[in-house]
Amino acid sequence: MAKGPPGRPLHRTLTFWTMCGLGLGMLCGAIAPEAGERMRFLADAFISLMTMLIGPVMFTTVAGGLASLGGRRPLGSLSLKAVVYFEAVTTLALVTGMLVGNLVGLLPSPGTDPEKDAGEVASLQRQAQSFGNGSLSLDAVVPHSLSSAVIGGNAVHTLVVAGITGVALVLAGRRGAPVLDLINRSSHLLFCMVRIVVTGAPAAAFGGAAYTTSQIGTVPLGGLAGLIGAFYLTCAVVIFGGLGLLARAGGFSLWRLVRYLRHEILVAIGTSSSGPVFPRVLRKLELAGAPRSTSAPVLAGGYSLHLVGTCLYIAMAAVFVAAATGSGLSLGDQLFFLAMAMIVSKSAVGVTGSGLLTLIATLSVTQSVPLGAVGLIIGIDRIMSEARAVTNLIANSVATLVITKWSGQLDLDRLTHTLSARRPPELDWPEDDPTVVEIHISDGT
To answer: How many other β-carbons are positioned within 10 Å of the β-carbon of residue 87?
Structure first.
């Protein structure tokens, strides 16, 4: 019988059943589109359950991780390196998306009806106003309360409060040790809850794949097929070209990292979201040699500030929609759009359908394209969201490993051994291997 990880048959691995779920979902969506469309609730339920846990998981891991750095100097150094890396890579992603979008805009226009999907565009515009009436709102960054930051579903809020808590624990010294111990124990409990919920990944992959496949036959692609193909190709080039070079500079193989994260990538494809796999990715990177003290803050920050796939998408889509409506974007308009996208995209985290909402919010700021024209790509947004999710997932994993190495915290030998293993073990959180990190803080650190 075929084997999965050592001592475990292939048919007993979660990766195998997730692949089965994806395949059966695509088959269901192709053969019975109406039934496939109704299966979306499986993916939505899984995403909702994981989203419920992501905020607390992110808070406990980031706060505990920052506290384990043991001083303000390491914390400041890590923050500076992460911010510089995130801004440089996302800026390059926006520029790349803009350049490719200009090329795609030369393709025959699919044509657009300003009244088409007008109601849905108006609904999305109201959601996008949560960013502050088209600009970066203070409410999008600063939470109103501690509880809302942890359970409110906004990753930026969670990251802000977790960062403040982590720094406070460092300053508190030994007096903060009981609180830190509670945070670490809570983290272990939350990871056990994740382990329970993640068993539903095959069903979520089935529902998401069935729904997406069912929609392909109902969307009049026409000239939109060029945008879809160009976006998927651009994501592939960015992943295996740009991120591959960054991985090589970091001393590890991107191909092996992708294989190591194969289950998480399958879940991202099935659910069209990289958020639900945050806890698993964090744990896998920790097991591969990236200590939680650095990997947790960097990965959580990446989920808020380093959405490479989303940046590619909004830049390409904006130029394409402008060309399709005949309005076009001048060089000045494109530069202004890039500047605004760098800001607005940071406040869109934690909102369902953030890619499309970020596009609408950015266009609201620049006022360079009629918002009604966004209805042109609403139908294909789900088709493109899989590529966005996978690109965001891989980009954040690479960023975490590279920045951890820059900080001198990466166990490169362990990483190489883990990624080179013929069959990397399935992720597990056994009772004798707790996910908490023992942290000792002394006064005056």
So the answer is: 14
Q: Which residues contact 62 (CB under 8 A, 6 or more apart)?
A: 158, 159, 162, 163, 166, 296, 297, 300
Contact 15, 2 (CB under 8 A): no
Instruction: Round to whole Å and give the CA distance between 207 and 116.
Output: 28
| Phi, psi torsion values for 3, nearest 5 degrees | -110, 145
Tokens at residue 359, please? Answer: 């596009």
Q: What span, in angstroms and rounded, lies between the C-alpha atoms of 419 and 414? A: 9
* Nearest-angstrom CA–CA distance, 421 and 427: 14
Q: What's the pTM? A: 0.81
- CB contact burial 327-363 (16+ within 10 A = b; e otherwise): eebeeebbebbbebbeebbbbbbbbebbbbbbbbbbb
CA distances from 398 to 77, 130, 295, 332 (A): 19, 30, 11, 33
Summarised one tens digit per residue, pLDDT across range 390-405 is 999 999 999 999 999 9
Dihedral of CA 13/16/17/19: which sign? positive
- Distance between CA atoms of 79 and 72, rounded to whole angstroms? 10
pLDDT tens-place string over residues 49-63 = 888 888 888 888 888
